[in-house]
Amino acid sequence: xxxxxxxxxxxxxxxxxxxxxxxxxxxxxxxxxxxxxxxxxxxxxxxxxxxxxxxxxxxxxxxxxxxxxxxxxxxxxxxxxxxxxxxxxxxxxxxxxxxxxxxxxxxxxxxxxxxxxxxxxxxxxxxxxxxxxxxxxxxxxxxxxxxxxxxxxxxxxxxxxxxxxxxxxxxxxxxxxxxxxxxxxxxxxxxxxxxxxxxxxxxxxxxxxxxxxxxxxxxxxxxxxxxxxxxxxxxxxxxxxxxxxxxxxxxxxxxxxxxxxxxxxxxxxxxxxxxxxxxxxxxxxxxxxxxxxxxxxxxxxxxxxxxxxxxxxxxxxxxxxxxxxxxxxxxxxxxxxxxxxxxxxxxxxxxxxxxxxxxxxxxxxxx
Length: 367
Description:
Layout: H1 12-24, E1 47-48, E2 65-67, E3 70-73, E4 76-79, E5 89-95, E6 98-105, E7 108-114, E8 121-122, E9 128-129, E10 135-140, E11 146-153, E12 156-163, E13 169-175, E14 183-185, E15 188-194, E16 201-206, E17 213-217, E18 220-224, E19 229-233, E20 241-245, E21 259-263, E22 269-278, E23 281-288, E24 294-302, E25 319-321, E26 326-333, E27 336-343, E28 348-350, E29 359-360
Parallel strand pairs: 1-24
Antiparallel strand pairs: 2-3, 2-29, 3-4, 5-6, 6-7, 7-8, 7-9, 10-11, 11-12, 12-13, 14-15, 15-16, 16-17, 18-19, 19-20, 21-22, 22-23, 23-24, 25-26, 26-27, 27-28
Protein name: WD40 repeat domain-containing protein
Signal peptide: 1-37
Organism: Nocardioides daphniae
């Protein structure tokens, strides 16, 4: 994805393996799913393996998603008329009255504004030449005002922040640590930075265009500005993460080998990826936010080779809450993918048709 950093004097491959492991919440070998958060508690429920063929077809997922060249949102579909290389198109989010869609084709990354019955418009300044040995991650801020592009090369990672309205540069940041932003909103970015004196890596709440850095912890693997939550490591090299307030960071209330993907609207539940491997698949977990107790577990996405820098084709991040009691996640089998909806009571149903890879807003990916 080395040099000295919070993981120690590792080689580039070792650092890459650790970063992929952290970013996905997947351990390099199977470990106990109860981890630190549930020590002394009742055993976690068994891991369920979903077979979509045996599920009834329920209503379409209510979260926006992109599949087979169409954005599904609010009961309507919008055609994305932008050519792309197979597996290299992603729904980023909203900006004003348009959807932002990232695509890769013939050595270039582009971001387009997409609206119904309108020709796609190239976002100013978003056309990026991708050279050999480079990898890119792209996301848009929650308020749609900033585009963040992370370029990975042999030296490290560079985050470039631009305005979506005109492509004007806001700021950039380089680190030898291979990571990318976890969230962005209202002019702020959650990411890893390095101390300029010690070169130690830390989780930061950063305001691009200023020297305003707030230290949240040693490392993090998830963050949600609109919930005032970041999931930070509970020590050094523990690989256990738990929730703390961005506005008043401290030791997490609980910790586990777990990477959060979404929080329920009422804040009582958190959805994410746990460390166990079942039939060579990662495990999606529903945990109670107050103490980290595992309430439900599902066989989830394909396991990532920890030596593989690219995490874009593995889809472990496609999972979101629809309400306090319903969530959807992608399940892929035999080259076909669909969204499955489950309730907190355990009932599940299909929530989309089978097709190509599903992309949802604010996923972290690397091309």
